Structures are given as structure tokens and as C-alpha cells.
Amino acid sequence: MRRLIPCLAASLLALAACGTSAAPSPAGSEGAGANASAPAKPAGSGAASAAAKPSASGATENTYGDPNGSPVKIAYASPAVASWPFYAAVAAGLYEREHLKVSMIQMAPNVTITALSKGEIDFTNSPGNAIEGATRGLPFKVVLSSWKQSPWTIVGKQDLNSVKDLKGHIVGTNQAGSTPYLYLQAALKRDGLAMSDVQVVSSPGTQNTYALLLAGKLDAAVVSPPFDAEAEEKGFHEVKFIGDALQEPYIGLGTNTTFLNQHRPELVRLLRALMDGNAWLKGHPDQAADLIAKNIGVTPDIAKRSAEKMLPLLSDTGEMPMSAVQESIGIQAELTKTTPTVKPEDIVDWGPLHEALRKS
Q: For residue 47, what is the enclosing H or E element?
């Protein structure tokens, strides 16, 4: 991915030189960097990985685990340390152990919701996507929350030292309604500002936002590890950590009720692999940092800094508080200017997770 970012930046700079604004890839397209975005096969893992190939939706698909196992398709927005448990499941051979053939497909959040509703994919790795769809009346359920807290951080130019300093400046984040977008909105509100007080530039994923920052198209950006540490190496600095602005879920799994009802055994096995992936990361901190370096393409120093920041945030239970789900429902109602018609218990189903963890 480190090769990807300069290519993106160069393209954006070329567009700027021509007097043209750089726009995100159209919804449904592969998007910038889709070919290099899925986790690489860790050396010595024994995990099977097919060559990248276009999926039915046009996105690039990378497959891991048991080639003869039960197939499951998981959509994600952008490569980042957030997907650590998925990388760990590959590295530790957990997909193979559970006899799963796992395909990772990069999609923009709005495309993911549509694809999940049509059964073109089986999961989104964003519980926020699932909650958003459920509030629209789609039959979605959150079945895993891999993190206790989000690590979203605003990084920017050296003259920006607080959230209030962002007023009037160009700030990049993911698409409207996405988790980082909502965290930015909440952080601005907490400091007495609104989204209209900044010039928001939306991108399909965090890697795209980071590329825009490097290209000089943004004054600040909402990013997650390892992009925050990389930005500091490029002369930017942390304006404000905003992972505490909301309780919104970070990365995990959301699915549709059809898959949940018809493929519960596969879901339980996938949940077991990912939760064991969390445990493996905590028990192997050095190898966990190596996974970041190998899969994200960052330097060992950046990987180590990201690992130290993120390891304490991994969930031990795989669940999130119902208050966080309620907060998410309220945010979606505010965005759509509608009255909520769903309750937290309508949106989450921890039953398969409890089965995976052998809970009663």
C-alpha cells in the first residue's frame, strides 16, 4: 500500500495542476487502490490465497483460508489496522481450522449496504453499516464488535492545534453517514461547531482521505492507524484524538437475517476464528506488529507504534454496549430526519457469538 499512496497522491497532484478537483471513484467501482487493499498472505501462515480477481460487483476480491471450505464474502471500506483480527485469522490459520473460504471485497459503504441487502455479500465488517441499513428497514443484524473503542484521530497541518481551529478549513473524512464522518460531526459539536463550519471532502475510504491529505488537497483529515503515525512522519501532527466523541461501533461484522438463519454454523465458525484472532494478537504482540507491517505495508516503527496504540482497544467479549447501539440509532434518525422505528435489541444478535465462545 505504500506504493499505492504515492501513486494516488501523484494522480491527485496532476489533477490539481490541470485545475481539476480530484473526486472519489464512483460508487460501485473498484475505487483507488482496491487491487492492493486486502491483507497479504503472511509468510509461513499456510493460508491459501487466490489471486485478486474482480467480483460480480466489479470490486476486487481476495480469498483466504481453506479453498474447499464454506465460502463467505466480507466487504470492507479500506485497509487499515482496524482489520487486524481478520489479518490474524489468516496468519494463525484460523480460517483453515474452521474450514472457511473467506473472500475480502473492498467496497464503498453505500455500495456495501446495497450488496448486503441483495445477498451479493454475506457480511460487512462495519457494524455501523449494518445499523444504518437496519434503521432504513433492511433485515440486518450486528453480530460482532471487535473493538472496545474507535481510534479515530484528526491529523492536519502544524498551524491547526484544536478542533476549533478547523473552522473554515478543508477537512477530509469518509462518506456522509460513515463512522469517521459521524465522529467528526460529534467532535465538532462537542467544541461548538457544526459540519457547515468546515469544508468537508468525502472519500470512499480512509486510505483515499489520507492520499488527499498528502496531495495537499486537505488541511486536516480524520484517519485511523497506521495513517496517523505516517502523517506525523510526513510533517503533519495530531490535531485531536476523537475516538471518545461517540460510542459508535468500529469494526466487526454485520450480516443479513437470511444468511444468519440459513448459515448459522458458518457464522459461528467465522466468529470463533475472529475472536481467537483477537486473543492471538494479544498473546503475540511482536508478531501482531509484524502483521501490520506486512499487510498494511508500513515500516516496522510505524507498525510497532500502531500496535501499541491499538492492542488495548481490542474487545475481549465481541459485544458492544446497548447504549452504543441506541446512540447509533439516534444518529441515523438525526441524519435522515426521521423517527426511529427500531430498538437496539432489534439490531443486534449476540446468540451466534455466545455459541462461538461457548457461552450459555
A: none
CATH architecture assignment, domain 34-149+251-356: 3-Layer(aba) Sandwich (3.40)
Q: pTM for the full model? A: 0.76
Q: What string of pLDDT tens digits covers the 360 residues of the chain?
A: 333 333 333 333 333 333 333 333 222 222 222 222 333 333 333 344 444 554 444 567 899 999 999 999 999 987 778 889 999 999 999 999 999 999 999 998 889 999 999 999 999 999 988 999 999 999 999 999 999 989 999 999 999 999 999 999 999 999 887 889 989 999 999 999 999 999 999 998 898 999 999 999 999 999 999 999 999 999 999 999 999 999 888 899 999 999 999 999 999 999 999 999 999 999 999 999 999 999 888 999 999 999 999 999 999 999 999 999 999 899 888 888 888 889 999 999 999 999 999 864
What does the domain layout of the chain look like in residue ranges? 4-26+151-241, 34-149+251-356
Please name the residues in contact with 306: beta carbons below 8 A apart, sequence gap of 6 or more. 81, 225, 226, 229, 289, 292, 298
For residue 9 the three cell numbers come to 497522491
- In whole angstroms, give the CA distance from residue 101 to residue 99: 7
Distance of alpha carbon 133 from alpha carbon 125, whole angstroms: 13
Note whether 4-26+151-241 and 34-149+251-356 share their fold. yes
**Closest C-alpha to 116, from 130, 136, 132:** 130
Beta strands in 60-189 (DSSP E): 60-65, 70-76, 100-106, 123-124, 140-145, 153-156, 170-174
Select from 331, 80, 39 the least CA-distant residue to 205.
80
- Retrieve residue 288's grid coordinates: 501482531
Closest among 56, 146, 52 to 104, alpha carbons compared? 52
DSSP assigned state of 74? E
Taking the CA atoms of 44, 45, 51 and 54 in sequence, report the sign of the dihedral they define.
negative
